[in-house]
Amino acid sequence: MMKKAIITITLSIFLFHADVEAQLFGKKKKQEEKSKTEKPKGDFKNYTDIIKGDVKSDDGLFMTHEIDGKLYYEIPFDNLEKDLLLVSRIVKLPDNFGGGYINAGSKVNEQVVRWYKRDKSIDLKVISFQNESDEESPIYKSVEANNFFPILYSSKIEALNPDSTAYLVDVTSLFTDEVSAINAMPDRLRKSYQVKRLDKSRSYIASAKSFPENIEVQHLMTYDAGDPPGRDQAGTISMLLNQSMILLPEDKMQPRLADDRVGWFTIQKYDYNSDKLKSDDYELIRRWRLVPKDIEAYKRGELVEPVKPIVYYLDPATPEKWRPYFIQGIEDWNVAFEAAGFKNAIIAKEAPSKEEDPEFSPEDIRYSVVRYVATTTRNAVGPSVSDPRTGEIIESDIIWYHNHLRSYRNRYMIEAGAQKESARTLETPEAEIGEMMRMVIAHEVGHALGLPHNMKASSAYPTDSLRSATFTQEYGLTPSIMDYARVNYVAQPEDQGVRYIRMMGPYDKYSVNWGYRYIPAANSKEDEKPILDEWILDKAGNPWYEFGSGYGVADPRANRESLGADHVKASEYGLANLKKVVPNLVAWTSEDGKDYSELAEVYRELGYMWSGYIRHVTANVGGVYETRKTSNQEGVVYQHVPKSIQKQAVQFLNDHAFTNHDWLLNREVLNRIEDDGAVERVKSLQSRSLASLLDEDRLIRMVENESFNGSEAYSILNMLDDLRTGIFSELYKSQAVDAYRRNLQRAYVELASSKIAELEAEEKRNDDVIISDIIPVMRAELEQLQADISSRRYRTSDKMSRIHWNDLLARINKSLENQ
After folding, report:
1. pLDDT at residue 759, as a whole number
2. pLDDT-derived band of residue 293, with 50, 70 and 90 as boundaries?
3. Is 265 part of a structural domain of the chain?
4. To pair with 541 at 20 to 30 A between CA atoms, which of 49, 83, 340, 785?
5. Is the pLDDT of residue 791 over 90?
6. What's the pLDDT band for 379 if we cut at 50, 70, 90?
7. Phi, psi angles (nearest 5°) of residue 671
């Protein structure tokens, strides 16, 4: 079998070069090996004429020297053309830089580089591994020619080191000039902050440290800016950056082929030597390298420690009272790793003190750190750094933003306040907020282990099971902590002993076993595939083990923030709880001597959650179930949501979204937080829900469903008829219309009119037949409403209602005349 050689996709800039990239990823040609170690000819400076005086040197992967603001590398001959991962991070930055979501520890870039010798110079080239070909095949030459390596940096060779085994190179300008591939000032922020230039007089190398397998350089960059972020009055932006250059292992981890039936972050590959009539694209999963210490014991089914466990350090800035919860959140994953046959696979540690380890740095790529960031941002993230050749995760930094505590405090009050006394306060008890933090950290560690969101998990459990203490205490709120299912809003006040905070579930154990179980009998990724397929087929048909990202699909089961298999029932339970919470918000959020800003914030977020419950139900209308399968499995992948469920969903919307919201418009709350705006707020909430229901993609799916399934489908005519009779129920019942409903009805007419105009414009651009079907249906809906208002508008004695009906009639007439 021919040896594979990985080829790169270049950056957008094509840099011509005298050297041909003949050696890629595979065996090296003899003449190239010779050129790597061949001493440069010509006059060069003496090593001792450069490295002298007050020199700060450090020995490691490369010997580094700091002299008078300059930085030199001694690049050993035997480290030329080796794969190095260059990771750029921010160490320190201005307040509110990038809007709060860029912080100390944020990764700026991640790329593989190699040092090449060229005559009397050294080039640093960027390498990628997306395209591959057999080195001895004819197509290899074409792949090589069409994937030329770009030069990131170049510098002349200053001298040879004393024993003539390395080239001495001045790399100062790599860190003091503005090199776009490693800086932290993207074009959008440059424009936003009116950045004029990099001021080199205030930009310098702060430190350089060399370790056996990596080099860490910190450098300060200062920009002149017309409108800097935060409270900066100096007209400048200064940032401290860290560049980590780590030697990638020559002993590569055996990669594992991805399968979209199990959720993993992946790396895309293209094999140009495939026997298929195209380049063979495939994906590798991203995962840490875990190998059992005792393979024979592992084969016997015993739990075995890995040769190298995954270790996370806590940021020294983490408040002491939260540290136990962070440690628990990290080590919770050991339960999942035990399902994969490993014990003590992941370990959390306190960061060592300066006395214990003076070299420890959170920016050092050898260490994975859970960072505690002091900003007002309300979020947490779990990024990682991986070897693009194999998918091996090298390092990750989990980031917890301080004000995320506020998010969970508010959510707990809103979604559990009706049921739990401990949630009825701005001072959530430490044990409960700590448990929430623990699960957030576990969720982010899941990302850092390679697992993406599994939004489908939340629809796996029967809705009423979430009201059961025995069920929720054993299985949690969903089968996966990688879903967005934070608080049990389904449970009712009478339900005792129910779990309210998410936890790890059966899918998490299953996915970790699938991705991390060591398979001794498999010598290649191809050997593993039949075994991995069998594990998937063993769980097929069980919703607990299904994956759905929730992105770019119409599957209502992959909703964000939802709970339970029956979305209508779950949202009814959630709304029932919200109606109990609103009358108590003043008492629960008031603090002596303080204003009502906390009340306003919680009330505003309660409205968002109301919208979420509506959205979960709306997704069923025109929804399509997606069950990921391969061709050897029975059944289809896509299936329209049954007619009965769609009809039930529209009825729910009429009853709970497009109705009067006296419970939400609580005067005790509103009179404390605003002088007006309540009517407009409700209109906005309802209008957004209505616009979502009449979304073009949803309507297209409904038309397609009817064309395939006829009367068994919930057609667009069915939906519009149910919607019209619900929204305009006062017209058909000869009742007065209040201000909120008048707003909604005007919004409906405006939306229907604008929808026709938008679709007609799109039809002209795309000649879309399906859009052509929607346009006459929407027009017919307006005409039906026109006729009904004309015949029924005077059946009420309420003067304002009559004015309203006449106004709507005029709007409809104008709309139809203009079409």
Report:
1. 82
2. very high
3. no
4. 340
5. yes
6. confident
7. -70, -10
Name the E strands within 119-212: 121-127, 131-134, 151-160, 166-170, 195-198, 204-210
The pLDDT assigned to 435 comes to 96
Whether residue 640 lies inside any domain: the answer is no
Parallel, antiparallel, or unpaired for β 310-314 and 368-373? parallel
Whether 612 maps to a domain, the answer reads no
- Across the strands, what pairs with 76? 166
Q: Which amino acid is present at 725?
A: T
Per residue in 282-294, is it b (16+ CB within 10 Å) or e — as a string?
ebbbbbbbbebee
Whether 148 has a pLDDT exceeding 80, the answer reads no
Tell me which of 128 and 461 has the higher pLDDT. Answer: 461
Residue 147 contacts residue 7 (beta carbons within 8 Å): yes
pLDDT tens digits along 649-696: 999 999 999 998 889 999 999 999 998 887 788 888 899 999 999 998
Can you give the pLDDT at residue 22? Answer: 36
From 532, 548, 565, give the residue that closes a domain.
Answer: 565
Domain hosting 402: range is 295-565
Q: How far is it between the farthest Cα atoms of the chain?
A: 104
What digits encode the pLDDT tens for the residues 486-541?
999 999 999 999 999 999 999 999 999 999 999 999 999 999 999 999 999 999 99
- Residue appearing with tokens 């011509």: 16
Six-digit token string for 158? 């200053």
Query: Would you state the structure tokens that stand for residue 178, as one six-digit string?
Result: 């503005």
Strand, coil or helix: 237: strand
Q: What is the pLDDT of residue 11?
A: 32
Coil, strand or helix at 384: strand
From 545, 565, 585, the end of a domain falls on: 565
| Nearest-angstrom CA–CA distance, 777 and 25 | 59
Strand order across the beta sheet in which 266-271 lies: 4-7, 131-134, 266-271, 280-285
Reduced to 3 states (helix: H, G, I; strand: E, B; else coil), residue 750 is helix
Q: What is the pLDDT of residue 138?
A: 53
Distance CA 658, CA 445 (A): 40
582/563 Cα distance (integer angstroms): 21
Task: Please tell me the distance from the alpha carbon of residue 148 to that of residue 20, in angstroms, as a whole number.
Answer: 9
Distance, in Å, from the CA atom of 663 to the CA atom of 515, rounded to the nearest integer, reads 48
Tokens representing 365? 């790529």
Q: Could you tell me which residue, 20 or 462, shows the higher pLDDT?
A: 462
Contact 46, 159 (CB under 8 A): yes
Burial class (CB in 10 A: 0-12, 13-18, 19+), 728: buried
Distance CA 800, CA 794 (A): 11
What are the counts of helices (DSSP H) followed by strands (DSSP E) for the chain? 25, 24
Amino acid identity of residue 101, one-letter, is Y
Nearest CA to 749 out of 695, 677, 814 is that of 814
Q: Using alpha carbons only, give the angle 477, 328, 414 rounded to the nearest 5 degrees.
A: 40
Q: Are residues 243 and 299 in the same domain?
A: no
Question: Which residues lie closer than 8 Å to 450 by C-beta, 6 or more apart?
Answer: 264, 265, 285, 286, 287, 288, 384, 393, 515
